[in-house]
Amino acid sequence: MKLNCKQNLLSAAVTNVQRAVSAKTTLPALEGILIRAEKGRIKLCGYDLEIGITTDIDAQIEEEGAIVVNAKLFGDIVRRLPKEDIRIETDEKYITYISSGEVKYQIVGMYPGEFPELPGFDKIDDISIECSLLKNMIKQTIFATSDDMSKPVYTGALFEFENNVFKIVAIDGIKMAIRKETVDYSNSSRFIVPKKALNEILKLGSDEDDSKIRIITGQRHAIFEIDSYSIFTRLIEGSFIDYNRTIPRATVTEACVVAKDFISSVERMSLLTSEKIQSPIRLFFSGEEINLSCSTTIGKANDVIKTPVKGAEMEIGFSNRHLLEALRNTDSDIIKIELQNSSTAMKITPTQGDSYLFLVVPMLLQRG
């Protein structure tokens, strides 16, 4: 293999592909990036058997071929090379020669046949969505995905398409987030995307309004095509909860609050808590205000948000972290808070429309 390419193009490609490479594995090839030179392009692939990222860049190919190189070492070298053309050559023993200007490296490569191929699959659905829209929907729901591997189905987010409505749903047992939009796709489809793949979409996706993401799904796998990148991922298998049944239907207490004011107030109460010092943030809804308080071994704090409260007086408590995660992911200036009772999840929605719905399960309050 012999080729020349631009340092900035190769550096960006390696940096992104490298995120799909296994940090520790018993298979050395999985710690590497597969580089394939053919038809005037360099194709790069990183794959950890769960998620794969591929891309290609322009190059001058003198001799086609392929090699696997250690991802960390190769990435570190490429990023530190002069911003000039890079020349890469390999020999029959898979020694890789890298040069740029006066800088020369010689590193040991691996036989490309040792690199596992990305599994092929039969296509079930092919969906195209605005990239900026999908990123926004993921940002507003990924906080509610679970890290509990004993329940893997909730370590990702449910993608649900039905009657031109697209929903992303995430739930971790304490929080639930639902984000929905109308899209130009009338078929029905449901699949669960792992959190790691969601994070890669956020990193690789363009914020330009006319940029699209193509989602190709099979029975157990999916590919997200974003600009020049493809993110291959296993889908999470299992039955996702009937999330509609978890949404409280009755509302006993209701208030509309300026989101940034609510966030600021909860943040002030949170100054008395930490990982070692846990205590709920108490919210007391009554009349024309919401009283917030927090009491821990290091002190007490109180605050008041002036806003009309409809319905019955109610006191309820929350983990500051879980409450803030939900509040910070609202994208409305004013949000609606609905409560059924002190032991049922708080419902957070926009005052206009129904583009998102967040639930936060309360903490048990000690009386007296």
Protein model, in words:
It is a single chain. The protein folds into 3 domains: 113 residues, Roll (DNA Polymerase III, Chain A, domain 2); 119 residues, Roll (DNA Polymerase III, Chain A, domain 2), CATH 3.10.150.10; 112 residues, Roll (DNA Polymerase III, Chain A, domain 2), CATH 3.10.150. 35% of the residues are buried. The strands form 4 sheets. The chain has a 9-stranded antiparallel sheet with strand order 14-11-12-13-26-25-24-18-22. An 8-stranded antiparallel sheet has the order 6-2-3-4-17-16-15-10. It has a 5-stranded antiparallel sheet with strand order 5-1-7-8-9. It has 6 helices and 26 strands. With 368 residues, it is α+β, with helices and mostly antiparallel strands.
Mind telling me the CATH superfamily name of the largest domain?
Answer: DNA Polymerase III, subunit A, domain 2
**Cα gyration radius (Å):** 25 Å
Number of domains: 3
Supply the number of helical segments.
Answer: 6
Helix content: 10-25%
Shape: elongated
Average of the residue pLDDT scores: 95
Q: Could you say what the CATH architecture of the largest domain is? A: Roll
CATH class of the largest domain: Alpha Beta
Helix/strand/pairing category: alpha+beta
Largest sheet descriptor? 9 strands, antiparallel
Strand content: 35-45%
Ends distance: 76 Å
Unreliable spans: none
CATH topology of the largest domain: DNA Polymerase III, Chain A, domain 2
Question: What is the β-strand count?
Answer: 26
Spatial ordering of strands, largest sheet: 14-11-12-13-26-25-24-18-22
